[in-house]
Automatic annotation (TrEMBL), chains A, B, C, D:
Official protein name in the record: Putative metal-dependent hydrolase P9B03_11655
GO molecular function: hydrolase activity; transferase activity; zinc ion binding
UniProt KW keywords: Cytoplasm, Hydrolase, Metal-binding, Transferase, Zinc
Gene this chain is encoded by: bstA
UniProt xrefs under NCBIfam families: PRK13291.1 (NF009807)
Species per Swiss-Prot/TrEMBL record: Metasolibacillus meyeri
């Protein structure tokens, strides 16, 4: 059954992560800002208010959320690379999406994502095999190894990209 | 005596913070990316390797550090606005400055700062008096009210801008 | 020398207004209806006819005046928040105090003040730093920034509260 | 044809206004707060979000608007009674409806309306024939005699009462 909250399904991490898999994920992370730009380049203000499901976020909120989320994720990678399994700080994403900067034009977050993903990609490509095994501790969900986290955020970008496509199709207000 | 680590001195928070002071600080935060762009627009790769003091960061590291630091700070503001005095996660700034993405061209972090400071400024300008009294808890330095934190980051930008000017004058390698 | 027209002195606006000052003023505005209720709860009809000075308003007129005045002030705040420095309409407060609704039981205006001050306080607490710098134009007295106006009405409440206390002490008819 | 913006039609002022007409109108103004209380007493938070038409105000906004509007109107009556055809200050009602105090519980504005309408009704009942001929000047719509303005606000209350009934029937979000 189709679940409109998960248009591409939930993230399934392979038991064994191949180096090719990691390369593919990093390429997906690298590609996301361009895909978002393409998908949203011609959107009107009205289209930016469409929701991907009843009471779900609008296209505008989705884009600002991706910027917030990936900024947090980038920081978690750097924490894990410079400390021994640090406990990271979760954030209340629904409340963040209501803060006033989530009403700004989307090009601000798109620009931010472009620059951020360039730094992030360079960082990810530099990771040695032993660095990929480093991890951080999430207070709610436990230990997260970086190699798995790369897959999670490749999925996360595609997940919200599909939300935006869904919002533009369903036109829910 | 001049301390080359603190070319503009350390941050001194006024006992009582006026609304005009906050307006001025926000304007300084808003202006920083332009000032950084201007100061670094014509720099050669060699100039980007100058240090502001012996064993201090290079101009390139300073710029990437400002982007990292202000990304963390922006996140702390949002945490304080959406949770009750959250304990934030410090980071090891010296180790971050050695990670491979700190060797990237500076325009990536400058672009990131431009977009980030636009979102940040909108958020700061929206803060009501009672929101300005909200705070986060830093595990090492204790409670930090947001109004004081605005001053701290207005100072932080000017502090590192002065470092870059100093590096370009002293040409330390 | 004591001036019985100004039992707590005239309003003195600090040169620089701190965020703490604004918080204090808003709390004073919030507290006024309770203070008025307490002070007037047991008053007889005779006591309501006492004047705070020769030919000054009676206690009854004072209470109706506070309701009129704060209703006008609340409207001026909303005008300043929704237009660019609007010119507001002054009113002839002495003539208003002679209109027949100023002879009504005081509980009507006290109830009105309670509800009005709740709406007003929520509005004031929501004001951002840049909104506090907005202003209206008074045809007689010129530009009034909202932050200063908050102080003026914190004072205005205390000013008339002191008038009522003075009237109940001096018992002038 | 039914126009959902005007469920009871627009205000039609009779050519000749009888004293009986004025008495009826004042009684309608007097009755409004009770009618609003009755209609909204059991509403859930969800019901308060219903709109009377697409992109129209919610029930909550309608109630706060009535309080704002009648406060302004009450002030205009007093201005007209104490000055010679004063020019009154219009207000941007749509922008007022977006200010944060329009998100408050409705009982605050209902209480305010109860107290306000008591003062207003006493004032209106006291008006002599010559006072009924006094007027104010509205910068956009010109001269408004008080007797006509009484009819306008009797209509205005019924107009928005019908909007609320319509919103509760249509359940538009």
């Amino acid at each position: 059954m189709h679940d409109e909250r998960y248009p591409i399904g939930e993230f399934q991490c392979p038991q064994s992560i191949s180096t090719q898999q990691i390369t593919d994920w990093i390429e997906q992370i690298e590609a996301l800002p361009q895909q978002l730009n393409k998908l949203t380049a011609q959107l009107t203000d009205a289209e930016l208010t469409y929701r991907y499901r009843e009471n779900g976020w609008t296209v505008r909120q989705l884009i600002h959320h991706i910027a917030d989320s990936h900024m947090n994720s980038y920081i978690r990678f750097k924490l894990a690379l410079t400390e021994i399994e640090p406990t990271i700080k979760p954030y209340a994403e629904d409340k963040w999406a209501e803060l006033p900067d989530s009403a700004l034009p989307i090009d601000i977050s798109l620009t931010c994502l472009e620059a951020l993903h360039r730094r992030w990609t360079v960082l990810l490509e530099s990771l040695s095999n032993s660095q990929l095994k480093r991890s951080f501790h999430h207070p709610d969900t436990g230990t997260m190894p970086l190699e798995q986290c790369i897959g999670l955020y490749a999925w996360h970008g595609a997940h919200h990209l599909a939300h935006i496509e869904q919002a533009l199709t369903l036109k829910i207000r």
